[in-house]
Amino acid sequence: MNQSPEPAGHSGGISTLAAELVVACILFAIGALVVYDSYRLGSRWAGDGPEAGYFPFYIGLIICISCVATLVFAVRGRATAGRKLFVGWQALRQVLSVIIPAAFFVLGIQIIGLYLASAVYIAGFMMWLGEYGWLRSAVLGFVVSALAFLTFEVWFQVPLYKGMLDPLAFLGY
Q1: Do 94 and 159 fall into the same domain?
Q2: Which of 2, 68, 102, 168 is deepest in the core (most CB within 10 A)?
Q3: Amino acid 79: pLDDT
Q4: Exposed/middle/buried for 13, CB within 10 Å: 0-12, 13-18, 19+?
């Protein structure tokens, strides 16, 4: 197995150069999508004012130009940036241990709604990171979500998103 030596004091991870390149490429793709779709909608100044894609087109263009500049500066400064550690593997694992469940939480909101997804999210975090028992975690997740439901739906009469499956339909909400 051929491994390159790591800089002194580092246990490995993602370099600053790699992080800059990946983020610039992702943001460039988003900017290019905005430019393309804005052009499709109409990005010119019409007789009666700007078309629907006028302002988003230029915002997307600015994003793309900024990303190209970031790529150029990152590659030109690669001799020093490539050796700097952006994030170590252990720190990245800790960040991902929060981001990945949060992404599933957002997906869960779309499917089963805010209240039920919140109960599952709270209980899951309590069991996984807090190392609480399943009963305590489930009860607290349910209580917090129930209090949020009462506060918003009943007392303030502000409906929050229930999800595609609408698990609270049987309550009339």
Answers
A1: yes
A2: 168
A3: 57
A4: middle
